[in-house]
Design brief:
The complex is a heterodimer of chains A (about 230) and B (about 850).
Chain A lengths: L3 E14 L2 E14 L3 E5 L6 H8 L7 E6 L2 E2 L5 H11 E4 L11 H11 L5 H11 L15 H13 L5 E5 L7 H18 L2 E5 L3 H4 L4 E6 L2 E2 L8 H4 L1
Parallel strand pairs in A: 3-8, 3-9, 6-7, 7-8
Antiparallel strand pairs in A: 1-2, 1-4, 4-5, 9-10
Chain B lengths: L2 H11 L8 H30 L1 H5 L3 E6 L5 H10 L2 E14 L6 E10 L10 E3 L4 H6 L6 E4 L1 H7 L6 E4 L2 E11 L13 E5 L16 E7 L6 H12 L5 E4 L5 H39 L1 H9 L4 H33 L1 H7 L10 H26 L21 H22 L2 H32 L7 H11 L5 H36 L3 E6 L4 H9 L4 E17 L2 E2 H5 L9 E5 L8 E5 L11 E5 H7 L6 E6 L2 E12 L11 E3 L1 H4 L5 E8 L4 H11 L4 E4 H40 L1 H13 L4 H39 L7 H21 L2 H5 L2 H8 L1
Parallel strand pairs in B: 3-8, 5-7, 14-19, 16-18
Antiparallel strand pairs in B: 1-9, 1-10, 2-3, 2-6, 2-9, 4-7, 5-8, 6-7, 11-20, 11-21, 12-13, 12-14, 12-17, 12-20, 15-18, 16-19, 17-18
Helix pairs in contact in B: 1-10, 2-8, 2-10, 2-12, 2-22, 8-12, 8-14, 8-16, 8-22, 10-12, 12-13, 13-14, 14-15, 14-16, 14-24, 15-24, 16-22, 16-24, 16-25, 22-25, 23-27, 24-25
The chains are: A alpha/beta (about 230), B alpha+beta (about 850).
Chain lengths: ~230, ~850
């Protein structure tokens, strides 16, 4: 493998809740190569989303190291992580998380504005057109369907041309047709911009579109099955 | 990250409209409006006093002397500088009406005027007639006009005859309006106006009689009042002159208005503090709703400072809106209500928009908004991106970053500092700030305690589901227990403290004193009348005690040769003239605390025995020399002893006593207190007033009633201020109830699904509200009682007892208010259909 884009060594995550300390991830070690598409699969509560979040610096690992693009995320403070994300990562959520008081265009322009880009709105408009929503630029999230909202979220995640795209069950809140369209769009964006894609999903057919599948169970990486590697399957 | 980007985000967030900010705006607007309105009314009164300064004073300037009329030199100077001079004599006396069944007597404040009176303004009489015609009299008797209260008390009608001293007068008319009444200050008796020339045979203005003479001057246009005052002071100050001019025509009133205004602004500040609790709760609730937006922005790369700036700017803009609404209301309401306020005020007011009090209120509002919103705003930046898929805020730190705590501290210092500067009374400001801080701390601890108690009690409520749900809800993390207890509790605390202070003050004045206070003060007893006076009382079994003392009035002009003001500042003892006495030996109840009383028969240089507490306050002590101006003559004596003087018994108490040989030569009269059975009082008055018509009797019970009336007015004004605080508290309560509605709707839906009836759910909601109200009321009562005790003990030096009717009303008020707010927001949750609510959550 060439220099990995993402490299986790013995990563662990424990959280203190009202019911006491909960261990969510144990000794996860993974390397993901540039341009690779990786599916994270496993039963509910197995730690898929948590693993995705520590890869994005959205959650702080409580053990091990997380390197992204050669930088150690565990050594960065919250603001440094935020700056790193806006420069290198795009994140897509199951429930879209668009900002309700902003129009579709403004939502997409936000990461560019945060990065101080002067042409934020031009680029955001182009990105919206790229996901087929040029005509909805002035609409607020509440005026759009779930599929449209997720397309806006995809545009927002990809508008900065991130090297890493993280997607947490992006079709989980969508019906079959919409879900399928979103996945096509996601893979299309990845193909066009050459980003590394890490995708959490429950759907075997989506996992099957990835270069590699990582299976999680009880916060640990489960042994791979023969079908977990696209290359192997091919 | 630029501020411009944050401003853009803030503007976008504001598109959400004002929903969720109504209580925020109302709290801020109400607090600012109350302070702005109080300040505007104060400014209106000050403007009115300034505008009508000359009319209130009765001239462009006034020279005031105690005990004497102006000397020839003084009169010459007045005639030289003025275009017109009017002389009046002002003193207390008894108005007497002879009836077959016995004489009727009433204390009156006599104004003996000359033909020139009033120089400015007009006296209004009923029936309408010119003053000179009314005072000219008829049937060979001089005329007089009298205030309605005394006419009624004496049972007089226009045309009837009454007596002042030994002179009969014809009552010509009722005195409806006296243009210069406000300048006179507090008077124990209603006013009677006569011509001074009519009193020549009345034997009232004898040598040593306690009276003051006032000379009103009409000055040529463009006279430099300041220069004229300086000239008058330079020439006559050591002769006991007091100067007032139209720049401040009623100094007593304006000082009173100033003090009361400052006090009410401070009460208003407590309202703003309550509003601050509401503002803080509203911001916290709003930011809680915005958690996912904040987390999304964090995911997209927003730094902490961007998040803080975005919401700081947004809340800042909303604060400005709330303050603007408050300032507008505070400016317009007094103007709109001007006719009503003017009709109720005994002094002139000139209503307009006054920028200074409005700016003051706006600054208070800004600082309050800053102090109370910074905490929740600072915590917003702690929202992490992970919150999007997990409630991460619950594990975030409780305190904001130290730099924000420093800013909050700086804001608080600025707020208290400005309140001190604006009000001009640091002591009161610090007391108020300390009181609010104490109450807030107590309430915050109480809120935690109530939740803890509810958590402990909940398991014991098995079998009583409504109570258990209520206790569970109070102890739960999402119920606004803290917000309810803080907001309502602080409002109730202020009201409770006012109730306790007012009640104890009334007790101190009207409840306790008559037990030990004398029945009458007799003043202006001439030296040759003393033997007969004493004999009449000593032979009366109903009289238990008589205290008599010679009394003079004098002004302390110098301390050790330096003007008194330079040494003692504006201490009350050196403001105006004070009663003083002389005595061969210390009186029975005198306790010397330092030095020694002069020996009997002492005839050396004048010696002074001074009140110990006042001496300490003024910074003087044994060996200091005081120069006292008595009847225009300076007497300098040395303080050789200090003694305790107890003014609380309403007996005779003099700040300053001298050895007899120092004062005996000066014309003076005697003052005497008589302690007698209540049923014997009337006869004593009849006998003494009949035998000595010049003597004035002041019935202590009447005097106490007058003071009580003034206090009642003050308590009422303070209660209005406290009511504004309580109203703000109620608004916050409504805000808390509204904020909890979504949670209650969900809770009601689940409970209904599980088979709970609406009545049972309602009972649970009501129990929860009542318990919280009870808690808030109880804590408020504790805070109010502590505040009342502190003020009674440290400020007023009176005994303290809990005023239970007021206390119980506070607790019932707390329960009632929370019940009302809780039940008002119960209907929605009860009416909602469970399926709709539960599906919406999926």
């Amino acid at each position: 493998m060439s220099d990995p884009v993402l490299s986790l060594t013995n990563a662990a995550l424990s959280l203190d809740g009202n019911a006491g300390r909960i261990d969510i991830l144990h000794g996860i070690s993974i390397e993901i190569a540039r341009g690779e598409t990786v599916g994270l699969v496993g039963p509910s509560g197995s730690g898929k989303s948590s693993l995705l979040m520590i890869m994005g610096g959205l959650e702080r690992a409580t053990g091990g190291t997380i390197h992204a693009l050669g930088q150690d995320l565990t050594q960065m403070n919250e603001d440094a992580l935020a700056r790193f994300r806006r420069g290198h990562m795009g994140v897509v959520f199951q429930s879209f998380h668009l900002i309700p008081t902003m129009t579709a265009l403004e939502n997409v322009a936000t990461p560019l504005e945060l990065a101080g880009n002067r042409d934020a709105f031009d680029r955001a408009e182009a990105e919206l057109k790229a996901v087929g929503l040029g005509h909805r630029a002035g609409h607020y999230p509440s005026q759009m369907s779930g599929g449209e909202q997720q397309r806006v979220a995809l545009a927002r995640a990809s508008v900065t041309r991130p090297e890493i795209l993280l997607a947490d069950e992006p079709t989980g809140n969508l019906d079959g047709a919409n879900g399928s369209a979103i996945m096509d769009l996601l893979f299309d964006l990845r193909d066009r911009h050459g980003a590394t894609l890490v995708l959490v999903t429950h759907a075997p057919e989506l996992a099957a579109r990835c270069d590699r599948v990582i299976r999680l169970a009880d916060g640990r990486i489960a042994p791979a099955t023969p079908s977990d590697s696209k290359a192997a399957a091919e | 990250m630029s501020l411009a980007t944050s401003a853009r985000f803030a503007r976008r967030e504001l598109r959400g409209g004002l929903k969720g900010f109504r209580i925020f705006l109302a709290c801020l607007a109400l607090g600012v409006a109350a302070i702005a309105a109080v300040g505007s009314v104060r400014s209106a009164i000050e403007a009115g006093l300034e505008r009508e300064g000359a009319a209130l004073l009765g001239g462009d300037a006034e020279l005031d002397f105690t005990y004497r009329f102006a000397s020839a030199d003084e009169l010459d100077w007045m005639n030289e500088v003025a275009t017109a001079v009017s002389e009046i004599a002002d003193f207390r006396s008894m108005a007497v009406v002879d009836r077959p069944e016995g004489a009727e007597r009433g204390l009156t404040q006599i104004k003996a005027v000359d033909d020139a009176y009033p120089l400015i303004g007009a006296v209004e009489l009923t029936p309408d007639m010119p003053l000179d015609a009314a005072l000219a009299g008829q049937d060979g008797l001089p005329g007089a006009v009298m205030e309605r209260a005394l006419i009624d008390r004496l049972g007089l009608s226009v045309g009837d005859t009454f007596r002042l001293g030994t002179q009969d007068f014809k009552l010509s008319a009722e005195l409806s309006r006296e243009p210069d009444s406000a300048a006179g200050g507090f008077a124990l008796g209603p006013r009677t106006i006569v011509l001074r020339t009519s009193l020549e045979n009345a034997e009232l203005l004898a040598s040593g009689t306690l009276f003051s003479s006032k000379y009103r001057l009409t000055l040529p246009e463009g006279t430099d009042l300041q220069a004229l005052e300086a000239d008058a002071r330079a020439r006559f100050e050591n002769s006991g002159l007091r100067w007032t001019d139209s720049r401040n025509g009623a100094p007593g009133v304006s000082e009173f208005v100033d003090r009361l205004g400052a006090f009410l602004v401070l009460v208003g500040l407590s309202g703003l503090a309550v509003g601050g609790v509401g503002v803080s709760a509203a911001v916290r609730a709003y930011l809680a709703e915005k958690t996912s937006v904040i987390a999304t922005l964090r995911t997209l790369g927003a730094e902490r400072s961007t998040i803080f700036q975005t919401y700081f700017l947004q809340i800042g803009a909303l604060s400005l809106l709330g303050i603007a609404i408050g300032v507008a209301l505070g400016a317009l309401i007094p103007v709109a209500l001007a006719p009503i306020i003017e009709a109720r005020l005994p002094i002139p007011a000139s209503f307009a928009i006054f920028p200074i009090p409005l700016t003051e209120a706006a600054i208070y509002g800004l600082l309050t908004a800053f102090v109370f919103t910074l905490w929740p705003l600072a915590r917003a930046e702690d929202v992490r991106a992970a919150t999007l898929f997990r409630d991460a805020l619950g594990t975030a730190r409780i305190l904001p970053a130290p730099r924000y705590l420093l800013w909050i501290g700086a804001g608080l210092v600025a707020l208290i500092g400005l309140a001190g500067v604006f009000s001009g009374t640091w002591r009161l400001t610090l007391w108020t700030a300390g009181g609010i801080a104490f109450a807030l701390a107590l309430l915050a601890v109480a809120a935690i305690g109530i939740r803890w108690l509810a958590r402990r009690a909940a398991p014991r409520a098995k079998g009583r589901p409504a109570l258990r749900w209520a206790l569970g809800a109070i102890s739960g993390p999402r119920e606004g227990a803290a917000s309810v207890v803080l907001s309502l509790g602080l409002g109730l605390s202020v009201l409770a403290a006012v109730g306790q202070i007012d009640g104890n003050l009334r007790n101190a004045i009207s409840g306790n004193l008559p037990e030990i206070a004398p029945s009458y003060f007799f003043v202006d007893i001439q030296r040759d009348q003393m033997p007969g006076y004493t004999e009449r009382l000593e032979n009366d079994d109903a009289v238990s005690r008589i205290d008599s003392a010679p009394m003079l009035r004098g002004i302390i002009t110098q301390i050790n040769g330096t003007p008194a003001r330079e040494v003692a500042g504006d201490h009350w003892v050196i403001q105006g003239d004070r009663g003083l006495t002389y005595s061969e030996t210390p009186t029975e109840n005198t306790r010397i605390t330092a030095g020694e009383w002069w020996p009997e028969g002492y005839t050396g240089p004048p010696q002074i025995s001074f009140a110990a507490e006042e001496a300490e306050e003024m910074g003087i002590g044994l060996g200091d020399n005081l120069t006292i101006n008595i009847l225009g003559r300076d007497i300098t004596g040395t303080i050789t002893s200090l003694r305790e003087v107890d003014f609380s018994t309403a007996g005779i108490g003099f700040i300053l006593s001298m050895n007899p040989s120092a004062l005996q030569g000066a014309p003076h009269t005697f003052i005497s207190t008589v302690y007698a059975d209540e049923e014997a009082e009337a006869q004593i008055l009849r006998d003494l007033a009949g035998a000595y018509p010049n003597i004035t009797a002041i019935r202590v019970r009447d005097a106490i009633d007058r003071v009580s009336d003034v206090l009642a007015g003050l308590a009422a004004a303070t209660s209005y201020g406290a009511a504004a605080t309580l109203l703000t508290g109620f608004l916050v309560l409504i805000g808390a109830a509204a904020a909890g509605m979504q949670a209650r709707t969900y809770e009601a839906a689940v409970l209904k699904t599980l088979g709970a009836t609406r009545a049972r759910i309602l009972l649970s909601f009501a129990t929860r509200a009542a318990l919280l109200g009870l808690g808030a009321g109880a804590v408020a009562l504790a805070a109010g009682i502590t505040g009342g005790w502190a003020v009674s003990n440290f400020v007023m030096d009176t005994d303290f007892t809990v005023i239970w009717p007021s206390a119980i009303a506070i607790i019932l008020g707390g329960v009632g208010a929370t019940l009302l707010a809780g039940l008002a927001f119960a209907w929605g949750p009860l009416a909602a259909r469970p399926a709709h609510i539960l599906r919406g959550r999926e």
